[in-house]
Structure formats: C-alpha cells, structure tokens
From TrEMBL:
Its EC number is 4.1.2.13. Pathway: Carbohydrate degradation; glycolysis; D-glyceraldehyde 3-phosphate and glycerone phosphate from D-glucose: step 4/4. Keywords: Glycolysis, Lyase. The keyword Lyase applies. GO terms for molecular function: fructose-bisphosphate aldolase activity. Belongs to the class I fructose-bisphosphate aldolase family. InterPro entries: Aldolase_TIM, FBA_I. It catalyses: beta-D-fructose 1,6-bisphosphate = D-glyceraldehyde 3-phosphate + dihydroxyacetone phosphate. GO terms for biological process: glycolytic process. This is Probable fructose-bisphosphate aldolase class 1.
Length: 333
C-alpha cells in the first residue's frame, strides 16, 4: 500500500458512524493515580491484566474504532498471549500510540507548558508502526487564566503539534492532533471560547505551514465549557459555544473531531457530545476519544479482581454504546 492509501484506509477505519476512540494511553504515573483510586497497585502485570481485560470486551468494536495505547502496552501480550495490537485488530479496532514524551515548563512563560518528544520521533514512529500502530497521538495543554496562555505558549505548542503531525503523515501514520484547553480554573465559558478560538486558529496555521494534509488527520480538542470551579453550563450552551468556535477555525476538510473528556464525568461527556450532535449538519464527524469518561466505571467494577472481569467489560460496553448513540444525537439520559 502507498503511504496515501495507508493514511486514507486508517481514516476510513477510525471515522465511522456510531463509533469513537478509546484512549487507554495513560502514562505510568497517570495509570498509577487511576489504580490507586480503586485500591490497586500499578505494576507491569496489573496494567497488562486490566488492559488485556478491557480490550477483550466482546464486540467492543461495535462502538470503538480505535484504541490509543501507551508504549508499554503496544509491545505487551494479552492474558491469552496474543500481541495487544493483534487482539485489537481481531476486534475490528485500529491500534494507535501516544508518542509525545509529556510536558514541562515553557521557559520565560510562567504558568505555561510545552510538550516534549520531537527528538528521535521518526525512528520511534517506525518502530511503533512495525509493532502494529496505525495512528498516533500528541497532546499539548493550554492553561487558562485572565492572562494565560501566553502568545509564546500558543505559538510554540502549535509549532510542535504541526511538526509531529507532518512526521506521522510522512510515515503513513494518521496523526491525532490534541490541543487541550484545560478545564482547571474558575474561568467563564466565554473565556474558554476566546482561548480555544485563538489556539485552534494558530494550530491550523502551523499545520498548514508544515503542509499537513487535513484530510488525513483527526482533531482531538476539548469542548468549550466553563472552568471546573465556575458555575456549570447546560449541554446546549456547551454545544452552541463549541460549534461556534469550531466553525470559525476548523477546516471542513478535517474528517473527524473526536473530543477528549478532560475531567467531565462520564454522564456529562455523553450528554454534551449528544447536544453537539443535535445541532447540524456540520462538515466534520463529531465523536469521542475519551479516556476517563469511558474507563472510570470499568475500573471501579474491576477493582483489581480478575473475577470482576465481566462486570468491568459490561461497564465499558455500556459507556461505549451510549457514546455511540451520542455520536448521532440519539442518546437520552
Ligand atoms: P480524557 O478523556 O480522560 O481527558 O483522556 C483523553 C486523552 O487521551 C488525554 O490525552
């Protein structure tokens, strides 16, 4: 297959009616935090057991088109000794991989962060591709206050997102471009909208500058919501604000916008996605790429006990099904 065919096939497989992406790419410290909340110690074995269990959920592929893996999982065997990427493919699910190397302070920009991981990226991508990864993910974050994010944080993160995306496409790997405007803080929905509009405008400018083909990427943004500490907005208010910003900034040639859940509860993120899909038509598919919002109920049901396996799988299946309905505005709480 040519690189163009690889990219188009992966887009067709990822962006499908009634389906979204499962983000299971928590880094070692993040999964340790999630496991500690359910009283489980995070070890290579416990991570393998949990992830193997959820990826084996019967018919998971009905509503999940792709799974984002952490590097460790990409090379792991399931409990039945099947390579995890192969297990996903047999479920009709595309395996993907988180490739950024985390984030840290941006020098001379107090309060802002920059994402690392461009050095050596091409050779890592080649290795991940050989292990079965067909798409990748890179996350940049933007803190929000009256003054944040700074101009240099927006420009610098947009630039690295674009350079990452260009390298992925060069190797036939679909890039998921994830600019997350963080929910932490007391800011209003109007302030989130203002920051999101600016961030997306700069990100697409950088993608254009680096000649990234919009047809062969997926955008993974945050929804436009008020800060966590501010008064909540209704799903309709969130949908209206989100779509207003996206219609101004996201080219119609982008095939899919797949939201992160970013600290919303499972129920909120489903209701908000449903509201977004109740206004239309829009030029892009609007779906989910949730981590916590898909996995939290499954993790609670599992609680580290193999005997709870079926309950955990049922909990994941339920969230995937409901989000599959929200993907076309057919969910009712
Ligand atoms: P959440 O849905 O938990 O925000 O995770 C999505 C993700 O992949 C963050 O990078």
């Amino acid at each position: 297959m040519s690189t163009a065919q690889e990219l188009q096939t992966t887009i067709n497989d990822l962006v499908q009616p009634d389906k979204g992406i499962l983000a299971a790419d928590e880094s070692a410290p993040t999964i340790a935090k999630r496991f500690s909340a359910i009283g489980v110690q995070s070890t290579e074995d416990s991570r393998r057991e949990y992830r193997s269990l959820i990826f084996s959920t019967p018919d998971l592929g009905d509503h999940i088109s792709g799974v984002i893996l952490f590097e460790e999982t990409l090379a792991q065997l399931s409990l039945d000794n099947i390579p995890i990427p192969k297990l996903l493919e047999t479920q009709g699910i595309v395996p993907g991989i988180k490739v950024d190397a985390g984030k840290g302070p941006l020098v001379n920009a107090p309060g802002d962060e920059i994402t690392y991981g461009l050095d050596g990226l091409a050779s890592r991508l080649e290795r991940y591709k050989a292990l079965g990864a067909r798409f990748a993910k890179w996350r940049s974050v933007f803190h929000v206050s009256d003054t944040l994010p700074s101009h240099q944080a927006v420009e610098a993160n947009a630039e690295v997102l674009a350079r990452y995306a260009a390298e992925c496409q060069e190797l036939g790997i679909v890039p998921i471009v994830e600019p997350e405007v963080l929910i932490d803080g007391n800011h209003s929905i109007e302030r989130t909208a203002e920051v999101s509009e600016n961030v997306l405008f700069k990100v697409f400018g950088a993608l254009h500058r680096h000649r990234v083909r919009f047809e062969w990427m997926v955008l993974k943004p945050s929804m436009v919501t008020p800060g966590k500490g501010a008064e909540k907005a209704s799903p309709e208010q969130i949908a209206t604000a989100t779509l207003r910003v996206f219609r101004r900034t996201v080219p119609a040639s982008v095939p899919g916008i797949m939201f992160l859940s970013g600290g919303q509860t499972p129920e909120e993120s489903t209701a908000n996605l449903n509201a977004i899909n109740s206004i239309g038509p829009q030029p892009w598919a609007l779906s989910f790429s949730y981590g916590r919002a898909l996995q939290e109920p499954a993790q609670k049901a599992w609680a580290g006990e193999r005997s709870n396996g079926e309950k955990a799988q049922a909990a994941l299946k339920k969230r995937a099904h409901l989000n599959g309905l929200a993907r076309s505005g057919r969910y009712s709480p």
